[in-house]
Amino acid sequence: MLPEDYLRQFHPLKVVDPALGISASIDVRNYVSGMTAAGRTEYNKISGIIAGRYLGGKNWSVSDLNGMPQPFSIKGASGIDPKEQWTIGSIRRAFGGRASPEEMVDGLRLAVLTGRCKPAEVGAYGAMHLGLDCNAFVGNWLGVSPSTSIEGYARGYGNTVPPGSTPDVLVTKGIVKLPPITDPAKITPGNVLATFSKLGGSAKTNWRHIALVQNWEPLAGGKYRLDLCEWGEAGGFQQHRASMTVTLTGNKSLSGIPEAMLPGTPTLAFETTRGGSPAFRVFLDDTKLAYLQSRGWDVGGHYGT
User: Fold this and answer.
1) Which residues contact 289 (CB under 8 A, 6 or more apart)?
2) 168 and 98: one domain?
3) Does some domain include residue 137?
4) Do 186 and 63 fall within a single domain?
5) What range does the domain containing 183 cover?
6) Residues 232, 209: contact at Cβ < 8 Å?
7) Are 216 and 226 spatial neighbours (Cβ–Cβ below 8 Å)?
8) Structural domain count, the chain
9) Across-strand partners of 211?
10) d(C-alpha 123, C-alpha 26), whole Å
């Protein structure tokens, strides 16, 4: 599956479940970086209702569901196969801007099951609550945690445990460091583009954005055509696609930044801007993750996270 094929699953997202009376088509357009207050409300309410109504949770709370064995099944619910498996992590990602298309669909099915929206309201409800950011889009396509940091792909996590990490981050933190590409002939669809720029706004790292290569081809004069898929802003399919002509450069420092992107490591990159400041986009090789599938709620090959 090419990145563009994956992107099309969100534009539109098809939500069909005859047993629950759902038939909707949603163009997922929101840019969501971190769980919003509205998303947290839905996550808490849906999780609590499931825990109390179907699994015997005493407090009908998200903490009840979080403390139960994962994955879990829902028995005695009309319209739900009692053998189908679910996880609280998947519900959290659905309403926290981190979900795969499958998880978004399942989140909406559970919203109907728990009465948070009616079947006929799924389109509007989904358009309000569903969304992604750049990390989530790239992570889901690669098959790793959609909460992996951009710097994590470029430099790895080492022996550190990122503060506030969800279980899916911990599952894949040891495999997400991707080697930089040094030969332009080896750039292929699915490679990762990580953007290195000056600190600015609320950013606490120089690694500011991430995207996926859709197409790469040489042009005359040492230039290349690059088509990519990314989720750097709100909008439809066209806002999440870009095409450009680029000239490659090696690893060097940006003006005003004392460190290079990856000191001592050969790279291929091209100059651009980010937030009005000079930036580089560096190519990272995703080949080591080829054994993983774009996931539903299987993270890094670890089922049920």
Assistant:
1) 142, 143, 144, 175, 176, 178
2) no
3) no
4) no
5) 144-288
6) yes
7) yes
8) 2
9) 193
10) 6
Strand partners, 267: none
Cα dist from 269 to 3, 241, 275, 281, 305, whole Å = 20, 19, 18, 5, 34
Q: What is d(CA 240, CA 147) in angstroms, rounded to the nearest whole number?
A: 19
Question: Between the CA atoms of 246, 283, 232 and 104, what dihedral angle is there, to the nearest 10 degrees?
Answer: 140
pTM: 0.93
Band of pLDDT at residue 274, cut at 50, 70 and 90: confident
Angstrom distance (rounded) from CA 217 to CA 3? 16
Judgement on whether residues 57 and 176 belong to the same structural domain of the protein: no
Region class of 24: left (phi > 0), else alpha (psi between -120 and 50), else beta:
beta
Do 116 and 162 have their domain in common? no
Domain closes at, from 86, 108, 132: 132
- Is the Cα torsion angle 190, 191, 197, 203 positive or negative in sign? positive
Q: Mean of the pLDDT values across residues 26-41?
A: 96
Alpha helices in the chain (DSSP H): 3-8, 37-49, 55, 62-66, 88-94, 101-113, 122-129, 134-142, 150-155, 167-172
Identify the pLDDT of residue 296: 61
- Among 274, 228, 297, 11, residue whose Cα is nearest residue 131: 11
Q: Is residue 294 part of a domain?
A: no
In a domain, residue 167? The reply is: yes
Whether residues 23 and 108 fall in one domain: yes
d(CA 223, CA 248): 7
Spatial contact of 42 and 128, defined as CB atoms under 8 Å apart: no
258 pLDDT above the threshold of 60: no
Residues 233, 131: contact at Cβ < 8 Å?
A: no
Q: Are 149 and 127 contained in the same domain?
A: no
Six-digit token string for 273: 């801007």
> Do the domain assignments include residue 298?
no
* Cβ 267 vs Cβ 243: under 8 Å: no
Same domain, 112 and 229: no
| 10 and 118 within one domain | yes
